[in-house]
Design a protein that fits this description.
Layout: H1 3-19, H2 24-35, H3 40-44, H4 53-92, H5 111-125, E1 129-130, E2 136-138, H6 139-142, E3 168-170, H7 176-184, E4 191-200, E5 212-222, H8 227-242, E6 248-255, E7 258-267, E8 284-293, H9 295-300, E9 309-316, H10 317-325, H11 338-349
Parallel strand pairs: 1-4
Antiparallel strand pairs: 2-3, 4-5, 5-9, 6-7, 7-8, 8-9
The structure holds 3,4-dihydroxyphenylalanine.
Length: about 350
């Protein structure tokens, strides 16, 4: 076979092989087969030792031409195949921008905090101050000066966490802040304060109890204050938090630091007082305790109970927030669960 015939044979073979090549992998192999170090085109110029210079030149020229031709054929197919593969990939990776995106959860204001701020704003607008007290409290303030001397049976109702010193405890209520406020403000009557804060009791945690919870305490000391003033104030709170249609009522109760003492109920906003699960069929929901400040408490703090009168109240903040935002488990407030925020967002959107 002379050189021309060899070249023709290679071209023919390449043409038929290229017809069958439909992916870049096969094409790469083809490239090696023809143009590689031991490829068919390269082979043509191997072993030319017994040829004349003229012949070498001629073969070199022909094989160079062939090399170019083969290169052109392979490159053009390579481009074709690359384009096709790219199109295929783009089609398979196509993004439908009309699809709804994945939801990204973002945090938000803590609902309990929000409720407390709402209460604070309301009471500030009525001339109250917002005060704080320590969570590790003296027995003296948490109980004794609140008319709960040692051994008083009502102490049992608040299962208290004591510290290593039995005069120090985790406050079981925010009521000791009443005492602190009165002791500090003797010359500054009338007194109007609310105190939102954490409280602690040795409760087992369940859907409605937590060993740590939040109260919003209120105290007003002035002259000629009666239960009617408390009722008026409670009306305002109930309507502000739960809507203008809310009715309120007092039920007789007992707290050592108030006389008379009451439970504060609001009319059920869930069923319009027809009776439902939330109000346990009664049409009323209890949201806190209150009463007229006991004369012993005034006297204990150095206020002449013949001159000064007052009312006090304590709301359960989680309870208010649960009612307001339809939350059924008190533990939700402390678990950083975004579903709580969702419940809140839904409610706000209404
Ligand atoms: N401290 C009471 C409790 O924890 C709630 C309470 C009742 C607070 C009557 C008051 C009050 O200030 O006057 O159950």
């Amino acid at each position: 076979m002379n050189i021309e015939e060899k070249i023709e044979k290679i071209k023919k073979e390449l043409k038929s092989e290229i017809q069958l090549t439909n992916n870049t992998n096969d094409l790469a192999n083809l490239k090696v087969k023809y143009l590689g170090k031991k490829g068919l085109v390269t082979e043509l110029t191997r072993d030319m030792s017994n040829l004349s210079i003229e012949e070498k030149k001629e073969i070199g020229r022909l094989s160079n031409e062939l090399k170019k031709e083969v290169n052109t054929i392979i490159s053009s197919l390579e481009e074709d195949l690359n384009n096709k593969e790219l199109e295929k990939r783009l089609a398979s990776e196509k993004i439908d921008i009309t699809l709804p995106s994945t939801k990204i959860n973002i945090g938000g204001e803590n609902i309990l905090e929000k409720l407390i701020e709402e209460m604070e704003a309301l009471f500030l607008s009525m001339g109250y101050d917002v005060v704080e007290g320590p969570e590790v409290e003296k027995d003296l303030y948490n109980f004794e000066l609140l008319n709960l001397p040692k051994g008083h049976p009502a102490r049992d109702a608040q299962d208290t966490f004591y510290t290593f010193e039995d005069t120090l405890l985790l406050r079981s209520q925010t009521s000791p802040v009443q005492i602190r406020t009165m002791l500090e403000n003797k010359e500054k009557t009338p007194i109007r304060v609310i105190c939102p804060g954490k409280t602690y009791r040795r409760d087992d945690d369940d859907a409605t109890h937590s060993h740590q919870f939040t109260q919003v305490e209120g105290l007003l000391v002035d002259k000629n204050i009666s239960l009617a003033d408390l009722k008026g104030t409670f009306d305002i709170v109930a309507r502000k938090l739960f809507g203008n249609d809310r009715q309120t009522r007092f039920r007789p109760s007992y707290y050592p630091f108030t006389e008379p003492s009451v439970e504060m109920d609001i009319s059920c906003f869930n069923c319009g007082q027809k009776g439902c699960n939330l109000c346990k069929g009664t049409g009323w929901i209890t949201v806190g305790g209150a009463g007229v400040v006991h004369h012993n408490v005034l006297d204990n703090c150095g206020y002449d109970s013949n001159i000064w009168t007052g009312f006090a109240f304590g709301f359960g903040a989680e309870r208010l927030a649960m009612l307001k935002y339809g939350i059924t488990d008190i533990r939700t407030f402390y678990t950083n669960d975004l579903r709580l925020k969702d419940a809140f967002d839904r409610r706000e959107a209404e």
